[in-house]
Design goal:
The chain is an alpha/beta fold. It has 10 helices and 13 strands.
């Protein structure tokens, strides 16, 4: 059967502290799980029954073996998980200070294997044929991944549904001024764009949701989605504006919530749900992950989303 969702970008191994509310020097033990934005989105979509795959790269090391094994366990196709012969699989640590402080420490030096994804690694036919294709801003932060990401988006020819997640990590850019430029290049090739307030400000110059969404639509996007944290989500198309409040939850670790939102967004768009319903379910998926420690391992099932919302979710 053909793939429904293909994502492209970052992967890593998350080592998150099991002691909450303390700095890393005082942490005694860590929980290991799969991570990386594009990888998490592929897992989240698979948890909701979608046939998904991720285009990424790992190192020739035991953590690379773990990434492939974990992805397979989640039902994510690993055919495009490449191996860099010299670089190590990245590690990610964080500190957990609920409800809203989660410092992240990336170990991606001298370079992460996923930044060495090149055009030669891409199956342009599969990318063009996928019902949903998802790229991230991290993939634009260095070469050859930048050129590969743009080439993959070009292969889509702005087919629905082509999603670009602004996913801005400032420290990964050698020149900060390059980030807005390349974000706009990706946006012009996408039909759906997703970002939080900081990310849309980077891409558009405005952090006011209505204004920022208007700029994104002006660049050719069909659907602009602005995640506003504790104020919920704002989305805009040429004909519709929707604001959806957040789903209340006891936050443990907010990292990965946006990726759960993304996987659910992919499902809702594929299912043809009304925009409001899509965002409500995506918010619930994000809230569930925010209440848990891990990212990929925490991605919810439909049953868990229904339980949180207190109502049946159409498949």
């Amino acid at each position: 059967m053909s793939l429904e969702v293909i994502t492209m970008g970052r992967v890593g191994v998350d080592l998150y502290p099991e002691q909450i509310g303390v700095r890393l020097p005082e942490v005694r033990s860590f929980a290991k799980s799969l991570g990386g934005s594009a990888t998490n989105v592929a897992v989240a979509a698979a948890r909701l029954g979608r046939r998904s795959a991720v285009i990424t790269k790992v190192g020739n090391d035991p953590f690379g073996d773990y990434v492939r094994s974990a992805l397979a366990g989640f039902g994510v196709d690993t055919r495009w998980v490449g191996t860099d012969p010299a670089l190590r699989t990245p590690l990610v640590f964080c500190e957990i200070f609920p409800p809203d402080n989660f410092p992240v420490y990336f170990y991606r030096e001298p370079k992460a294997p996923d930044m060495n994804i090149s055009r030669d690694d891409l199956d342009f036919g599969a990318i063009a044929d996928a019902a949903v294709f998802w790229t991230t801003g991290t993939g634009l932060s260095d070469e050859p991944s930048r050129s590969a990401t743009i080439a993959a988006l070009d292969a889509r020819r702005r087919r629905e549904v082509t999603i670009h997640d602004l996913d801005h990590r400032p420290h990964l850019w050698k020149e900060s001024a390059d980030a807005p430029r390349w974000a706009r290049e990706a946006v012009r090739r996408a039909t759906v764009v997703v970002g939080n307030l900081d990310e849309v400000e980077m891409a558009t110059g405005s952090r006011e949701p209505t204004s920022a969404a208007g700029v994104l639509l002006g660049l050719g996007v069909h659907l602009a989605i602005v995640k506003r944290g504790h104020e919920g989500v704002y989305a805009r198309t040429a004909r519709e504006e929707v604001s959806v409040p957040p789903v209340e939850t006891a936050v443990l670790n907010g990292l990965g919530a946006g990726d759960a939102f993304g996987g659910s967004l992919c499902h809702g768009l594929l299912a043809g749900w009304p925009l409001r319903r899509t965002l409500e379910v995506a918010n619930a998926a994000g809230a569930i992950v925010a209440s848990r420690l891990a990212c990929a391992d925490a991605m919810p099932t439909f049953g868990e989303i229904e339980e949180l919302l207190g109502k049946k979710v159409p498949l």
